[in-house]
Amino acid sequence: LMKMMLEQNPTAALLPIKDFPGRSLYLPVQVGIQAGRSAVFATAQTNRVGSQQKAFILTTIKDYAVGGIDGETLEAIESEESLIDGVKDEMEGSFEILQRSIAVHVHGDGSGSIGQIGTDDSATQLTLSNRYDAVNFFVGQTIQANPNKTGNSGTLRAGTGTVTKVGHDSGVITYTANGGFNPSASDYLYTEGDYDAKMKGLEGWNPETAPTGGDSFFSVDRSSHVTELSGHRFDASSFNPIDGINKGLAHASAFGCQPTVMVVNPMEMFAIKQDLGNKAIVDLAKSPNDPTVQFESVVFVQGNRKVKLVEDVNCPRGVVRGFKPEDGAIYARKKGFPRILSRDGNTMRAEASADAYQWRLGFYAQMGWKRPKNLLRIKIAYS
């Protein structure tokens, strides 16, 4: 399951997956170095203080995908080999839903939002403000809406919607309303149960808007040292993408931010490759979790460093994400991201009220960064 996830999710694949031990995980970050220095010895001695640190206190989030197969179908599969293949095919359907959740929210802010309504067309149809967010929706999905993206679960709209049709080119989502579901324009959309319950992804750790006073992110007020605790951000939307990326890297480098990997949406990658033409330097980026999982990258050079740009369909449009993989990790219980939840030893278990057998896939995990200062968010132009 993990290898399948890595192959389909470049950003998650480029981050090491480590064990999450204990109830909470402390990630200390140094924000100030030893300060006992002066041309005068007595002054250096007087001004000596220890290094300054902050500690993020990580807690896990949970994510589940539950599937099953009926008893007769199991009995109809006669040989052991066909049984394994039959169950594998069914289980991969559950896995696909779970890996899509991982793919979207490794880039997210933890709010769980998968899109915003541009126009509320009718009682059964809406148009997304960004049509490319349609990739986050699928037929049969149960959705909720909230005018507040995060921080106010009490304002969730009544009822739910069941998606019946997805217009990937138009951004139009058709649904059946349940329980008085009636979202409005500008509402944010969520898979049912996900509001403020997802992993703090790259947008959470390195947000577009720098943290201000009163920020509380895993118990840390990042406004005390914005770049050391929440990375760097650079608006390059007035330049063409290649110049914008180079200027963003130069800006970051001037402040000691040194990402080695970047990810970008396929639409932007297409434009970048076209503009570079035969000047493009192509290399491979390998997953630290499995070296057989590799992704083609376009190389940018900053100073004497190579920075590899990798395509990821789940990266939001108009955003280039830069990071140094060894600075962070996805911390997961038993390093299972994802895995079959079988604490009782049963890969499948009989359902209590049906002639069927159920499996449970999922994970308990959180993204964490020991050196957020090497995170970089570049805003680039797109059409």
Helix content: 10-25%
* Rg value: 23 Å
* Global structural class: alpha+beta
Task: Show unreliable segments.
Answer: none
What would you call the quaternary organization?
Answer: single chain
Widest sheet, order of strands: 11-21-16-12-15-14-13
SSE order, as H and E? HHEEHEEHHEEEEEEHHEHEHEEEEEEEEE
Count the helices. How many?
9
Distance between the termini: 36 Å
**Roughly what fraction of the amino acids lie in strands?**
25-35%
Number of strands: 21
Largest sheet: 7 strands, mixed
Choose one word for the global shape: globular
Average pLDDT over all residues: 92
Question: Can you describe this structure?
Answer:
The strands form four sheets. The chain has a seven-stranded mixed sheet. The two termini are 36 Å apart. With 383 residues, the chain is an alpha+beta fold. It has helices at residues 2-8, 10-14, 41-46, 71-76, 80-105, 202-205, 226-230, 241-254, 266-276, and strands at residues 17-19, 25-32, 52-58, 61-70, 115-122, 125-128, 142-146, 160-166, 172-178, 188-191, 232-236, 261-264, 282-286, 294-302, 305-311, 319-323, 328-332, 339-340, 349-350, 356-369, 376-380. The chain is globular and about 85 Å long. Strand 13 and strand 14 form a beta hairpin.
